[in-house]
Write a structure and sequence with these properties.
mainly beta; Jelly Rolls; EC 3.2.1.23; Ig-like_GH2; 13-stranded antiparallel beta sheet; about 10% helix; Immunoglobulin-like
């Protein structure tokens, strides 16, 4: 027996209250009296998808049709070998599930009223108790509904519950709103089913309006006739200590609703940054005796939409930084658990999100409970994906949603469906059940004082914010697909949305790839082509690159001069770092700042990661929300001998919200440490069959005398398949003149070219390092530019490199990667389409100082003498119909680049997403120096 968060007495599936109880005594009698005054709940299914109970089951069509078996509940039947998987739009009206379950409710429920409650079943549900209809068929798959079954139930005896669930509805408008949507459709009892028992006269529900100033109003709704004459309420904190005095109100005879009110002095206010919760218990008394009591968690907070200004919480303007979340798990569909809800919320908070939109239906109650507890602003949404419920079908569903969810402080807005799926006749219904009178939104429209339009371009976003007059809060923007969207373009958008007066923030589409494990397709994960892989996270919550980009851009602590640290630690760094506080309620004094001095391994050491030379903390600066300030680091003497300085910021919950790593030496200085040219070994050069062959010790390099390009490399007799470069990735290279011979550095080959490539100098040094100096000339707009080489992809097994990683980058998604020594094994992941093996191996990598390619022949190590080098590793695969999320790649296999392309979204090309999505403008001469070393695999 336990008391739930919402004040129910929870019983086991058998209905037993206490097993092995001692003889009845005074204390036990008092405890049982208190228990009798509460609503008691007996689960017939398990409480969630992690705790299930088997029921008898038969499906009428699809797999295993017509065969009775058992199925765990709650669940969606498709995941247990029954019925048909279908994604949106494809209705299967003949598919029904028949359930049967035998249960025994407690004998002491005689004389009490009993209700059969379904938290959610898809989509039309008919229930019978002992062969008798519990009530009318319920239509609507995402809502709580209940039947009074007092007269149909036999307490203390075996009872039979029979349920028929039709996957599609007999009401066309319900199918239009719920089933003809851009998401997976499932069938079955996927949320818990339970019995509730209460006294004949009881409190059916309460609706709380708790304001930031401590004003508290409670609407209590009563059911049943009886002698009750008074309601008494008491507020307590999370530990159960009373807050304020009890407050009371008389109950007039025959009253069905009564309002209580009080005021609490200086309550701790609820926000997403400070999720302080209280509990209120409301007791229904008669003659001084408590007949029934309920309790609810709530928070003191006030929401305001100030026209032509913004959204305010507790008098402070807030920017919502959120994502759209579907309720789904790959092996259980819409049947989830508190564990999954917690994981998703913590992942969102790890990305520094403070908000979530429930797309496109109300979520499980455990998700909202955890949003209250952990701190997350919520947009709670009625179903309706571009088509609406009729007023007759929708009105009871609005009532169900609001009555269930009204007391959650996390909910800021109600959403009346999505993208034209609203029925405007329902707009006024929300306020009938919500004493807080939250604003109702029409996602995709300008309604309720807020423009929520979807997928505006960067330029139209600028116009709306700078030239419009309404609050702008897109409930969907940057529609992800595969590796596009989300982080790509977000910095440009947030430069506008994070600073313009009319902005209230926005919601990325979407949090998750909606993938399901298909037991009818050998266990493969199905994302319905390009319809459902829209997430920042994979189906099993795999973190894609954009996860870290979003975390970086939405961190509440930012650098005031990011450009000063763009290429590493400034040479004049004196320990001072300018910071901006983007919190709404939190002073940076509540954060913890810690620094580390790092040493990186060299390529020859063959490992990744770093060693910590020294570490310490810094006093948190006193920066109020919305203000700038300075963090002062007191570093030890000799700190510049380290390879990098790392700084992390954690919040009051010890969650990392931001981290930076800055390399200390310049690329030139670092190259000098790593590359030994040697002096004690002879270097030779000769022309052999149209090639210039250079030899130093165990290394032999061949250059094509007709082109000046690399023709082959051998080390200790083993050939390396690294050839045909440095060819310009844009334009031509026609050899004009070539010379070769010994010089002060070794044996050099110099080539002059016409076309884009102008000059190349190869030099094999006595140490065996091969130096390459090249210069090219390019102007105009281009997707990418640099030089490239060939190397068979099939001969590569991995790479170790010092640079920003471990994820690949695009021109408009450079943030979120960290300088370190990283290792990746080869994979051929098509992001969001198959495998979900992250980080992806192939693609563009930023700020590479050195890299060792693991090949079948051995390791090819490259060292750059210049900053800001992009290393391109092969050409990745993309999923089917990638729209604007398959950027161009150069010919060849490996490239050393000065510029790379941007990536788009499902709906927009990169150039529409902001300045960083446009083409690169080449500005004349580009010169670089690279060093190569070849090591045979032992």
């Amino acid at each position: 027996m336990s008391l739930s968060r919402r004040g129910f007495l929870v019983l086991g599936a058998t209905g037993a209250v206490v097993a092995g109880a001692p003889p009845l005594g005074v204390a036990q009698a008092a405890a049982e009296s208190a228990a009798a005054s509460r609503t008691q709940r007996m689960y017939l299914t398990g409480p969630d998808a992690d705790h299930q109970v088997d029921w008898d089951f038969m499906c009428t069509s699809g797999r295993r049709r017509g065969v009775w078996g058992t199925i765990p509940t709650p669940s969606n039947w498709e995941f247990h070998g029954y019925g048909t998987y279908n994604y949106g739009w494809n209705l299967v009206p003949e598919e029904k599930g028949h359930y049967r379950h035998t249960f025994t409710p407690p004998g002491d429920w005689r004389g009490r009223r009993v209700f059969l409650v379904f938290e959610g079943a898809m989509t039309d549900t008919e229930a019978r108790i002992n062969g008798e209809l519990a009530g009318p068929v319920h239509r609507g798959g995402f809502y709580r509904f209940r039947y009074e079954v007092t007269g149909k139930l036999a307490p203390g005896e075996a009872n039979v519950l029979e349920v028929t669930v039709s996957k599609e509805s007999a009401d066309t408008s319900v199918n239009n709103a719920e089933r003809l949507g851009d998401y997976w459709n499932f069938g079955g009892i996927y949320r818990p089913v339970y019995l509730e028992s209460a006294p004949a006269q009881h409190i059916e529900r309460i609706a709380v309006d708790a304001r930031a100033d401590g004003t508290l109003r409670i609407d209590a709704y009563l059911s049943g006739a009886g002698p009750a004459d008074r309601l008494v309420a008491q507020v307590t904190d999370r530990s159960g200590r009373p807050v304020g005095m009890p407050f009371t109100v008389p109950v007039p005879t025959g009253a069905t609703s009564v309002t209580l009110s009080t005021a609490i002095d200086a309550p701790r206010q609820w926000t997403a940054e400070t999720p302080h919760l209280y509990r209120v218990e409301v007791a229904l008394n008669s003659g001084g005796h408590t007949d029934h009591r309920v309790s609810e968690m709530f928070g003191f907070r006030t929401i305001e939409v100030r026209p032509h200004d913004g959204v305010y919480v507790n008098g402070v303007k807030v920017l919502l930084k959120g994502a759209n979340r579907h309720t789904i798990w790959p092996t259980s569909g819409r049947a989830t658990s508190a564990r999954i809800s917690r994981e998703d919320i913590l992942l969102m908070k790890e990305m520094n999100m403070n908000a979530v939109r429930m797309s496109h239906y109300p979520p499980d109650t455990h998700f909202l409970d955890l949003a209250d507890e952990l701190g997350l602003y919520v947009l709670d949404e009625l179903a309706g994906w571009q088509k609406s419920y009729s007023e007759e079908a929708g009105a009871p569903l609005v009532a169900s949603m609001v009555n269930r969810d009204v007391n959650h402080p996390s909910i800021l807005f109600w959403c009346n469906a999505n993208e034209g799926g609203w029925n405007t006749a329902l707009d006024d219904d929300y306020g009938l059940y919500d004493p807080q009178q939250r604003t109702v939104l029409h996602p995709w429209a300008n309604f309720g004082g807020i423009n929520t339009d979807h997928y505006e371009s960067y330029e139209s976003t600028r116009r709306i914010l700078q030239e419009g007059s309404d609050i702008f809060m897109p409930t969907e923007f940057l529609h992800g697909l595969y590796d596009g969207g989300h982080g790509a373009g977000l910095e440009d958008y947030w430069t506008l949305m994070g600073h313009e007066r009319l902005s209230a923030g926005g919601f990325l589409w979407a949090l998750l790839d909606e993938g399901v494990v298909r037991d009818d397709q050998d266990g493969s994960v199905d994302v319905a082509g390009n319809a459902a892989p829209d997430g920042i996270l994979g189906p099993f919550r795999e973190k894609e690159a954009s996860f870290y980009t979003v975390k970086d851009i939405w961190s509440p602590v930012q650098l005031t001069e990011p450009e000063r640290f763009a290429s590493g630690l400034p040479s004049d760094f004196d320990g001072r770092i300018g910071l901006a506080n983007h919190y709404a309620f939190t002073n940076t004094r509540r954060c913890r700042f810690a620094w580390r001095l790092l040493d990186f391994p060299t390529p020859s050491q063959g490992r990744d990661g770093h060693a910590v030379r020294d570490r310490g903390t810094a006093s948190a600066p006193d920066i109020e929300p919305g203000q700038d300030g300075v963090l002062r680091l007191r570093l030890p003497s000799g700190w510049r001998r380290a390879d990098a300085l790392a700084l992390s910021v954690t919040d009051s919950d010890d969650r990392e919200i931001q981290n930076w790593t800055w390399i200390i030496p310049s690329a030139t200085e670092q190259a000098r440490r790593l590359v030994s040219t040697g002096r004690d070994r002879a270097v030779q050069g000769a022309v052999e069959g149209g090639r210039i062959v250079l030899t130093s010790g165990h290394t032999t390099v061949s250059l094509d005398a007709a082109t000046g390009m690399l023709a082959g490399v051998r080390h200790r007799g083993t050939p390396f398949s690294f050839t045909n470069g440095p060819l310009p990735t844009t334009g031509t290279a026609e050899l004009v003149h070539l010379t070769h011979g010994l010089d002060a550095d070794g044996y050099a080959v110099e080539a002059e070219y016409s076309g884009v490539l102008r000059h190349v100098r190869w030099c094999l040094t006595p140490s065996g390092w091969l130096r390459l100096d090249y210069r090219y000339h390019l102007t105009g707009e281009h997707d990418f530019f640099g030089v490239g080489f060939d190397h068979p992809e099939s001969e590569v097994s991995g790479v170790t490199w010092l640079g920003r990683g471990p994820y690949r980058v695009w021109k408009n998604r450079l943030r979120g990667v960290t300088p370190d020594v990283w290792t990746k094994t080869y994979n051929d992941t098509a992001t969001g389409a198959d495998g979900w093996e992250y980080p992806e191996f192939k693609g563009y990598h930023a700020d590479v100082r050195w890299a060792s390619l693991h090949t079948a022949a051995g390791r090819i190590t490259m060292v750059s003498e210049n900053e800001n080098l992009f290393l391109r590793l092969f050409t990745p695969r993309f999923g089917p119909d990638p729209r604007y999320t398959a950027p161009p790649f150069p010919t060849g296999d490996l490239s050393f680049l000065d510029a790379i392309p941007a990536i788009g979204t499902k709906f927009d090309p990169p150039a529409a997403l902001g300045p960083s999505g446009g083409p690169n403008t080449a500005a004349g001469d580009y010169s670089r120096t690279l060093f190569f070393a070849f090591t045979r695999t032992v």
